[in-house]
Amino acid sequence: MTASSRAHSFNAAAGQYAAGRPSYPPALFDLIEQFTNRPLAGARVADVGAGTGIATALLRERGADVIGVEPGGAMAAQFRTVLPDVPIIRGDGNALPLADASQDLITYAQSWQWTDTTRSVPEALRVLLPGGALAIWWNTTAFDVPWIRGQHQRIAQHCGVKPTSRARPDDSDAVRLAGLSGIRVARHQVRWSRTVPLDTHLANIGSRSAFLVLAEDARRAFLREERRRLGDMFPDEAVEETYVVDLLVATRP
Predict the structure, then answer these.
(1) Cβ(83)–Cβ(59) under 8 Å?
(2) Domain spans of the chain, in order of start
(3) N or C: which end of the chain has fewer CB within 10 A?
(4) Over 90: is that where the pLDDT of 49 sits?
(5) Mean pLDDT over all residues of the chain?
(6) How far is the C-alpha of 231 from the C-alpha of 200, rounded, in Å?
(7) Architecture (CATH level 2) of domain 3-142+166-195+242-251
(8) Per-residue pLDDT reduced to its tens digit, 58-94
(9) Over 60: is that where the pLDDT of 8 sits?
């Protein structure tokens, strides 16, 4: 299964994605302001790979003048339902449909891995204003929580992918960005958690690209067994999910 197929698989489950995916803690946006040395309020921001608008909505709440960029039709339609007054345009980070030197900040929430960095890095630099920044982040796995680590291993096995033991992606993007002339790179992690109904937790699992490309019977079989397992672990069906947000901010001269 190609990366492109997995990237576009989200269109088949846009509503499930919106319902199940976790948000991001306020501390994340505090760090972005700290690293960029400017408030989000009034900043011109492009949220790329905006999906259903989870991060876009939080950026707008901080006062940013934000626009969504999203390649998927179904995801963009869900975005418009949730955020009808926020503009969204179709496109992706490899060829941003934005003018030169037009944005103070470009953000990628859970979506940088779907880009070709030989194209998306130059595109970000083209679109950013002098002193502007690229902010990339992921909600990553809290491997120190035993049940979360065990679930991660079961998901990897069921989906036929190799389980990782890292709490974040590797540093290749940071190294590359730091090697560009004048670029300042900062990286930080924020630990946070949320408590959600078991159904929401399972919807979150089922909205992941590795699951969406499986046959429906294979998806249902795993989620049925996981419901039984977690029902024993959380008899009140209130699941505490723990995340480690990994943030990278690269500021151009």
Answers:
(1) no
(2) 3-142+166-195+242-251
(3) C
(4) yes
(5) 87
(6) 13
(7) 3-Layer(aba) Sandwich (3.40)
(8) 999 999 999 999 999 988 999 999 999 999 999 999 9
(9) no
pLDDT at 218: 84
Tokens of 202: 């399972």
Distances in whole angstroms, Cα of residue 90 to Cα of each of 48, 97, 224? 10, 8, 36
The confidence score (pLDDT) of residue 18 equals 55
Residue 91, token pair as written in the block: 């496109």
Q: What is the DSSP string of the chain?
A: --HHHHHHGGGGGHHHHHHHS----HHHHHHHHHHHTS-STT-EEEEET-TTSHHHHHHHHTT-EEEEEES-HHHHHHHHHH-TTS-EEE--TTS--S-TT-EEEEEEES-GGGS-HHHHHHHHHHHEEEEEEEEEEEEEE-TTSHHHHHHHHHHHHHHT-PPP--SS--SHHHHHHHTSTT-EEEEEEEEEEEEEEHHHHHHHHHTSHHHHTS-HHHHHHHHHHHHHHHHHH-TT-EEEEEEEEEEEEEE--
Quick one: pLDDT band at residue 215, thresholds 50, 70, 90? confident
